[in-house]
Amino acid sequence: MTGSMDQNGAVQPIGGVNEKIEGFFDLCRLRGLDGSQGVLIPARNRRNLVLKDEVVQRSRGDLPHLEIDRVEEGSRR
Question: Per-residue pLDDT tens for 11-35?
Answer without folding.
Answer: 999 999 999 999 999 999 899 888 7
